[in-house]
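Ticket #4471: structure output looks truncated?

Reporter: J.K.
Steps to reproduce: submitted the chain below (346 residues) through the standard prediction queue, then opened the result file.
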Amino acid sequence: MRLEGVWLRYQRRAPWVLRETDVRIGPGEVAVVLGRNGVGKSTLLQLAAGVLRPTRGRVVDRPGVVGWVPERFPADQPFTVGAYLTAMGRVAGLSGPEADRAVRHWIDRLGLIRFHGVRLPQLSKGTAQKVGLAQALLRPPGLLVLDEPWEGFDATARELVPEVVGEVLAGGGAVLVSDHRGETVRLPGARHWTVADGTVAEEAPAGDAAVAVVELAIPAAGVAAAVARLRAAGHHVLRVREPAALPSTTRPASVPPADAVPTADAAPTAGSVPPGGPVPPGGPVSSAGPVSSAGPVLGSEGGLERGSGAPADAGNGELGGPTPSSPARGAPAERDLTRPAPEVTR
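Returned output as attached by the reporter:
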């Protein structure tokens, strides 16, 4: 699809909102529209979706099926959620059974089942936005246009938006999306269109940079703050999950506690081998203390400043537990097996 020499103003003799706009987007591509409030981002998206017609110029090769999600869903309509979505499916060209199946699928996926019989004006902004997203996806779109799609969504719905974008792209569709929250960092490979002073310019693509995936184990109470910090730093948080119990590092059975008093029977004789096996040169290998499960695990792409071989909680301790260089608080001291045990006489 191409916008060729597009100009737009809302009234005759009014200032031009967009001038000499020439942009294109192809199948399997996603473009993020950037710019401060009031510069014409929504106007550009509405031109692409066919909601507005250009004052001058033309839009060429717009796909036949366009999914349009405005920044604020028009909820002031006398329909229930189920009736509205079914009617929109029929408007999109679906048969009755096809519309019913599509409505059931998206109502379930977006967590709208309990709102099926609720009237649109009674919905919260976030729930109404989910209805708007559902109506745009009832029929797989060749072009999906999202105006601030993360606005008003809960955490679960925000995580779903990149999935939906990926599915549209995988099906050969194109996606246009605007965002002022910084959420589009989760759309790797997106093109960037910047709107300013009535013109649209595309940023030159940055060179491919190597990335690393780092897993962090953090306390459950700190998940939201940690995710916010990572995203603010430009990292891509892949997921948050509840890990299985991490294995504990235990003391070898052959090493007695530090305060134990050896008996004559247990005292080693010259040339004998301790019960745990020979002591390696330089002394025994000791653990850094017990390791415990710290909570949900974040998978972060973007390469945090950690050593390549560091464990998940290594570093300065800001997001993790104790560092490997020191024992965990409260861990019993290791006994040095390189020193002979004190001689005990009967």
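Triage note (M.O.): checked the attachment and the full token line is present. The chain is about 20% helix and 20% strand.
Status: closed, working as intended.
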